[in-house]
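Posting this for the archive.
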Amino acid sequence: MTIMLVNPPGAQGTTANREGSGGMGVVTPGAGGFVYPPQTLAYVAASLRQAGHAVVALDAVAEGLTVEETLPRFEDRETGGQGDEEKVPWSPPPLVSLSSLKAVGVLISVATLEADLDFVNALARPDRSSGDLSGLPIFVFGYGVRYVWRQVLENSAARLAVLGEAEFHAPAVVEALAADDPQALAALVGVAYGSKGEIVCRPDRSLGDLSGLPHPAWDLLPHDRYAFLPLAASRGCDDGCAYCPYVAAQGPLRPRSPKAVAAEALWLERTFRPPRLIFRDPAFAADRERTVELGEALRRARVRTAWECESRPEHFDADLLYRLRRAGCQTVKLGLETVDETLLWGMNRLLPGWTVARYRAHVAELVATCRRLGLHCRLFVMTGLPGETRQALQATLAFLQAVRPPAVSVTRYRPYPGTRLGEEIGDASGLPALPEADLVRFEKAMRATAEPPPSPRRSTLRRMLGR
């Protein structure tokens, strides 16, 4: 069977990042915002292909397509135009024949839900000039689907919603949809679907075995347009910060074999030659011994592509940073979030035995260590947290001004479903939210504290030779 998978366009005037926030999604105003390549879609495509299906994938976000430009990709023609091969060696897939297409999968997220449902409904409209897909089964997938499946099925033409990790369910899903067999649908788990005017939800509490994952099918996507390629040495996190969507989306920490991760990194390097690799793990260094083992595995595999990782500040120390730098790590990202004591305790951000003073001193030491080792260091800060005061923002700003990190990313708090803060009604602190103007002013000042390291000096010989 031929299956088409789509990362649809975002709402007009925005950039849709459906992989952001653990797969719950992030929307930024304007075009050209930061976007993770659709790793979830690449894994689902690989899973379907491994099961023997033909797969066509379309990343409308990466290709800069609007809804009107995306829909004609489903025209009833066998071939389509090619890209400019001098600029983009990857070529767009041929336009898909409606007669060969058996199902369409659409990647969605919580943050982009409204635009996603609009796209699904536009795709299924019978009066589309580029062909009638109204009888073709459409399914949606993505980490956040388990929280919005009812909205999807009640407000869109999607026939089925895959709950959780779609790569483990997709082959059975497309076979049941293509067969149009109620008994086959009833046998599925990890899905929700409409049946006889009612919605049936059959959740699957088990978590997939990451050791059986195939390499993601980046060859089906415009990999040459991505500034990097992502990979994951683990999924989920055990710490349970009150605001964090990763546990809600991915569950507890599940590590992959360091040997398997190094093999995938080497495969990505040799096959696609990405400018860099980004580990998507929210808690990359949670298990110190395993992190050291992973670094050694990357060294033994001779992975030359620079890579970056992210973890809680408490997970790193000077020796571990040195080992990661030696293994090819170029950037370390630290989730500082805030230095306000009330907020840190309220968000369950401090580990047992840690004090706020120790937390601040440790982050400052890590920034200094990264500078000595030649590691790029990026601090993540969150504003707009429930109960946040001007004094809390000022304390975080003063800390950033003191440590002068090479890079600062400031994001606005968003209440995601499945998180403790996201499920609470109102602000338990009883404090009014700060005015937008105050938040914008502090955010601008925080970003201005970044002090990028100087460009490396050329050697004396290179200066003499003018190189």
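The chain has 16 helices and 17 strands. The first helix runs from residue 39 to 50.
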